[in-house]
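Checklist before submission:
- one chain only
- standard amino acids only
- sequence pasted in full

Submission:
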Amino acid sequence: MHGSPKSTTPRGTPSRRGKSPRIASPPNSSQPSAPPQSETPSNSTDFFFSCLSIPVEGAIPIGDEETKVTPSPPPTEPASSTGEPKRTPRKSKIDALVALNNHAMSSSDDNDEYISPTNLAEKYRDAKPIPTDPILDLSTVRTTAPRHFSHPKSTPRPFGLEDCPEFYPTDDEFRDPMAYISSISEKAKKYGICKIVPPEGWQMPFMTDTERFRFKTRLQRLNNIEASSRAKLNFLEQLYRFHKQQGNPRVVVPTINQKPVDLWLLRKEVQKLGGYEAVNKARKWIDIGRAMGYIGLPTLPSQLRNAYTRVILPYEHFCERGRSTPTSPPRASQNRAQVNGTPGKSTQPTQNGGDISAPSSPLTARSSPLSEPPDESESKEQVANARPRRSTRRMSQVETPKKTAVEPTPLATPVFHDSKPEPEVKGKDRSLDDAPCEICGKLDNGTEMLLCDGCDLGFHMFCLDPPLESVPVDEWYCHPCLTSTGGDFGFDEGEEHSLSSFQARDKEFRQVWFRSHPPPSSAKGKKIDDPTASHFGDVTVTEYDVENEFWRLVQSPDETVEVEYGADIHSTTHGSAMPTLETFPLNPYAKDSWNLNNIPVLSESLLRYIKSDISGMTVPWTYVGMTFSTFCWHNEDHYTYSVNFMHWGETKTWYGVPGEDAEKFEAAIQYEAPDLFELQPDLLFQLVTLMNPKRLIDSDVRVYACNQRAGEFVLTFPKAYHAGFNHGLNFNEAVNFALPDWLTPGRDCVQRYRAFRKLPVFSHDELLITITEHSSSIKTALWLTDSLSEMTEREMEVRKKARAMGLKEVLDRNTGPQSEEQYQCNVCKVFCYLSQVTCSHWHNRVVCVDHANFLCDKCDPGSEMTLRIRFGDQELLELRHRFAERAGVPSVWQSKLRKLLMESPRPPLRSLKALLAEGDRINLNYNLPEIYTLRKCVNRATEWVEAANSFTLRKQGRKRPRRSRGRMAQNDMEECSERPDKTLDDLHALLKEVEHLGFDCPEIGTLRNLSQQAEELKASAVAILSLPSAEREKDDFMQKCQNLVLDASSLNVLIDEVVEVEKIVDREQLIKELEEKLEDSKTTLNLDEVRHYVGRARQCNLSSEHEYVKTLDARLREGSSWEKRAKNLLAQPVKTIEDLEEFANLDNSVPLEPSVVDRILAALDKAKEYERIATSWLRPEPGTSKPRPMDVMKLTKRASEFSIVRLQEAQSRAKIAQELEEQSDQVLKGHYPRGANEDLFKSIQEWKVYATEHLLSIFSLPSFEKLEAQVKAHEQWLTNLPWYCTKHQTPHSSTVLGDVMDSTHPDDDQPPNDEYFTCICFQPVRPPPPGSQSDAVQCDHCFARFHGECAKNGGSCPFCDHHHWNGEIRKDRNYHFCFLPSILANAPDITKRYSEEWRNLETIVNRVDRLSTVIGQFLAYTSQSSNQHPTYIHQVRHYMRKLYKIQFAVSPHPDISYGLDLAGLHRILAGRPKKKRKPKIVFGQDVDQDWADKTRCICRGRTSYLLHYPSVACTQCDRLYHSGCVFYPTESRIEFICPLCCLRRNKPYKWSEVRVTPPASENPPSNRYVNIKEMLDSGSQDVIYMSLPNPYMQTLFVELIEYAAGQPETIQHIAQYDHLSQSRPPPTTHQAPLPQSAPTIQHSPSSSQVPPPPWSRWGTVATPSRPPSTQRRQTMDIPHPSRKRKHPEDPEESHHPASSLPTESTSKRRAVLPPPAPQAHTHTSVPPPPVQSSPVQTQTLSPSLAKLMSPVDQVSPRPLYGASPHLIARNGHESHSSSPLMRNGGVEILNSPPMHGLGDSPRLPPIRNNHEVVRSGQANSPPPIRTGSGTDTHNSPPVRKMMMSPGQ
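Returned file contents:
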């Protein structure tokens, strides 16, 4: 892990990270920050550029209130009350360097050669901030890196460094991080660092919320970080201050050969050779010049000596005198440190002394030789203006003796001069009078007292050496303050950023920098095959280029670059970038072992035993780097391991020094800058110092490097120093862990921290104790014992020392939480976990035993101080003993093994096995090297014992069993298998092998006895076999052989000679058995026995010429032939009954195999059983149950190995029956795919005929029977249709559907906008052509005109005569609509799915229901007398035309007829006077004559050039107009209505404005016009005038000649119909009963050859040639045919009408009534029209119709419109709230009085024609209908004349 110094919090908080107390800032101190570049008063460097100059959105500037520079307080400000020496921010050392260079410039002779420095910040001085996105786009950064990439060897790494090893673990190796790190540790530890590249596919997710993530940065000036550079700056500042306060403020750097002398290098080289005196005495100035790079200058030695003498030597003398000057009284100081015998500075916290401007270096070309001393007058003037300075912080006195630097030596441990704490005294305000001289200690001569600007202490000017004559002009510092300059170096706070703002700044900085500083290797247009290179326009920058540029800037004295670094960002505050189980529990990487949140707590990591989280060690820290940002040389806290992972971003270069070279590294860096370490002995703990790797290599320090890229790990090892820098924006995360090999370096680090008084992060002793509490395994004890022993011995020594001091001892086992200060030594900062010294005066302060004397100045260690211990001595010793004993277990076991092997060359096998078992238990926790050899030896011995047991253990069943029939061959095989398989030679070999194995066991003696017995049997067998033939004929010969064989059977050894003797015995026995079997005719041998005897004959070497052997061979050949044929038959896939019977009837003389015979007989019985079952199915007995087709198919599948004719016939029929069942099931479920023109019900009828003839007598078909019942119900349902024809046995619904479709179109609810539509049909009654006679007739009551053909139907006006609607006039459709929904709902399922008649009925019901709803709403609206306007008569006639064409009664109730209600309403609306005169309007064109071109135009023929101009005819009056005069476009196809007709009809003219002028005879004004519209709307009797402005558009002018007002409209109000006073019950819906299923028809069984079924595609059904998959109907690929509709607007869904029943939403429909369109024959203003329904997309039943379809029987007379809404439903709704809302122009009319019922309206007289005679006395007789040729005395309306031909 790496970072840079920052203000830290005390340990005990989650953010604690071990840091030196030297870098901590006091809480109340202000920290100087870099001001903007523009505020720098003088910049003497050649180049300075800060990344802060780049403005970026989202970055919080550093110039806020918390970071502003605080000026020094005035002299009257009291000192700090803390009692500790503190100091306010002093002026920067840069001021001194600026003054040096300014004086050099003023005194130089070459001022004209000065060139002003380039400042890139000028580019961004007034620039706008770079815009940023609040969320970082991860696609703009590198998230992956090329695997196995390395730079070519031809391009060496800078400084010639060697790369550290890179490891590429496999997936298995990568699974366990600790095990893998342990495996590579031996190799990688030699390099200090290494890189680990995860396997491909492992991608750790980046989980940081980039929008909320914000962090603070630290400023880094690159050339201030390098050790030698900072040491040089400190030295030059001290030098300048010294000369300035000595009265020479214009001191400058001398030059040699017009180049400034490097004073720091000069002093360093002089000190290297022993100092000024030694160099001067040995005259080594020429060597000094050569070392500084000067060659060939004769005056060089004198120039160097003079420069040293004038500038450096006085300062050195001052420092020597300051160290030797006594101080009285002594200053209060604490912890005075001495390095190499040199007292150092105090370790109390100091203020960070960050630079506030660009550092100025005196090593520039503008320096000049030493100038003359200043004028005396100038000095006096400055003294007069000077005044004493007083500060708020005092420094302790530091004595620095003369040093002599020779060769690098390891970093020495500082020696601290500790003292007892002084009591705290509240300080008073010190004035000039009470400040004593620090040298003489007197308070006199106050005017001569000089106060130091650093420590605020007083000095007499005459006491100084050399004494001062006057007060210095500016600042003055005492010797300790002057020589401690630079000891407070640290990084300043930067800005606060988000990731996107930091990316924007880094991107801009990189582009600007590398475009202005291209690397030497970058050439325009040159392609570089480097995936890691960056491109900035034409500039290509490789990783090595960035590395070279970084070190160039670090070492450059002329170029200062300031960058930001977001280091040590606490993941406890900002969150880890890796998923955790708390934040992302479902992410698999949250549990990954390589997740940095998990690595510290893995089972092998020792940090898991730390009881609390330590931020930065056990909790990861994150780092956000930018270009050139660096982390300085350091090693990890407590020398632990660290692992660093790069989530994304640019390369990070690492440098590592192995832990073995740590001392060399410290010596080299101390040798490079000894002054820095003199001021800050703990400098390496502060992470603020770099050193060039090349210089380290020159000092014999091994340095290795690596480039870390996105997705890669970098591992650092214990004590290894490492540093590095970033190539650009990147995001890293790091954490620490510790393996067991870390314990020793960790303990060394604790001692080092104690020596340097550095705060440790955790207690090492506490960690060891915690490990013992949680793990006591052998493995743990082995690596823990040494550390535990060291801790115990050290603690015992400490306690011995404490007891010698006489301290009281208290055992305190308090393990609860307590602050670190309560058990941390107040002096050396070490954790006093095991023991601590306390006293009663300091409750919160403890010390270790070594510093007991510094705890309190009031206490006596022997009486008042207490030694508090956590564990007793015996506990610690027992703990050490227990773990030492556990650790010694492996060695004890090894001792037992050595002892066993030393006691005997052949140790017992049992002892070896016991020792192996014990070692295996130990090996579970610790790897025993000897265990593998021992296990191998024991395993080999065990194998030998098992082989020996195969000889010694007898096998069971060596006696010959009794042979049974059918088992002869098997017994023979058993005898062969029972014979021993190990020979006597094997026995001898096994005994010989054991001689070479070093163990002993009882089996060895047993095996030797067995070998001796076997040898004896072998000798006996040889003796028997060597007997002559004569001896073998004796009776006792066979007995001897049998005894020998019996004796050999007890030995498990195969002896060849004994086998030969056994054959003699078997041969004799076999001949006796064959004689008995073959000579007996009653005994038959089966094939198994024959084979057995033949095998025995061959085994015992019986001659093949023996008669018994010949007989056996003949029987074996015959039986084997039969067996082969039988097995071939059984192996055939299909067998016939005839073939099986042939083999079952063989002769008994043939030897048969019993098992084969059994199989033949079993197959024959099974085949006959299958045949019997198939026959019973094809010819069933009466009363037997019928099988299902599936049962037959299952049986045929089981009988597939037999060829049975009956079964095949049953199978063929079963397939047909099964397909019929499948078809029937598809029909019942609604999944049957019908053909294009297929009538399913006809197909089912064909299926029924076929099934009755061929299937029903054999099979049980439940699905088909259900289908047949459904078909019968469908047929019964068809008979219930009103249009069912009994003659043709089919319904005729096409004409009904056609009429309904024509009359119920949703877009046709409004009447036609044509005055000629007056007939009951849907055609206009227009005037006949000229010269022809009209057959139209007219109603005398309503004046409606009818076609002659239409008037023949009934002989009366259908609009007025209610006989057309109450059923008295016969109609073909004399049924009521309300019964149709019940028929629709009661249809069977098959009807709803497949019947075209049902779909027609559904369409009829839905269409008529919608029309019924519209008419019902209209009637409800017009039921109010105020709404019964004559203009609605056209709407009424339109609805009556629809109902007239439908013919059947329409309403939601059987006692209601909307046609009858409309007829009554029509009588009301048509009741008016016989004569009605329209207003007469005569315009000028009416009185004009036709012009020569037959026109009567607007122009009135007064413009000659318009003659024969294109004309257009009016479609209303047939007059011709010039198209130009009326602005009618000639290309338009819209019908033309002239302006005059539009005026008379009170309609606007489409093509222009029309204005009517008064008669010319009245001489009207020019702006006076006639308001025709107002006159027609109001029926005015007089002419109405109006004034209009001049026209601004196309306007026509028409002259009014005459106006005669029409007769006012009078409406004859007919008495409204009365209502019934009582409510009636709801109507009853009569449902037709469903038909019963028809009985099943039984048929006789069909023959074996059945015809193909009507639904099948088979050609034959006897033996199908195609597989079943192709014989069946393919139903999956046939799309379901869409239902044919006559009209495309019909809904596609065919659903049960119950689905369209009203719901809550449909029952609350609202009807909005917009204003009606003006009619052609109206003369006055009209009220709003009734309901206009919009086109309906989905038809639903009206509420009233839905109510009729409810299952409750409803019986009710005709409902009343005017009844109370609480008694009956209004318009089909159940309540007032659910009634439809009638609106007139958006106004609710729901609460208007209901329309009166029309059921009791007076009967209209019959309509008569001209052939009938009017009967007197009939008041209610209707007026006659006049024809065109009639001569009636009654006056007809004027329109009647228009219908006549012009000639008549």
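Reviewer check: The chain is about 35% helix and 10% strand.
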